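Sequence, please.
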């Protein structure tokens, strides 16, 4: 699941809307919406993000949050470490190798470390 998919599912369930109902209103297939929620599809288009924002009638901070989550929700990333240190390349490769074996606690801890950099 991606952060965007998780948020869309949360919004949809909080409003008691089925995937089928939402997909029909957005003129997309229920299968595509399901794949988007589960992280089996890439980042949605800007137009679809705007449709979803409108569908849920969310504004300001909540709409901006959904846009940001979409930017952070590509399930198959390629990380270019050319020109970076050997340690940076090693970090990316180890993360790629081990991420599926990490529990949620370890992943949250790593996210905290990385997000602290953004707050500096």
């Amino acid at each position: 699941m991606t952060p965007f998919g998780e948020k869309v599912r949360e919004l949809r369930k909080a409003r008691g809307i089925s995937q089928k109902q939402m997909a029909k209103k957005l003129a997309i297939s229920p299968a595509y919406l399901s794949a988007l929620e589960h992280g089996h599809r890439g980042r949605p288009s800007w137009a679809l993000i705007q449709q979803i924002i409108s569908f849920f009638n969310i504004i300001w901070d909540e709409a901006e949050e959904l846009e940001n989550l979409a930017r952070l929700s590509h399930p198959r990333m390629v990380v270019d470490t050319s020109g970076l240190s050997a340690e940076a390349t090693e970090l990316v490769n180890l993360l790629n190798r081990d991420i599926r074996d990490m529990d949620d606690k370890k992943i949250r801890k790593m996210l905290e470390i990385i997000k602290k950099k953004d707050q500096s």
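The chain has a mean pLDDT of 92.
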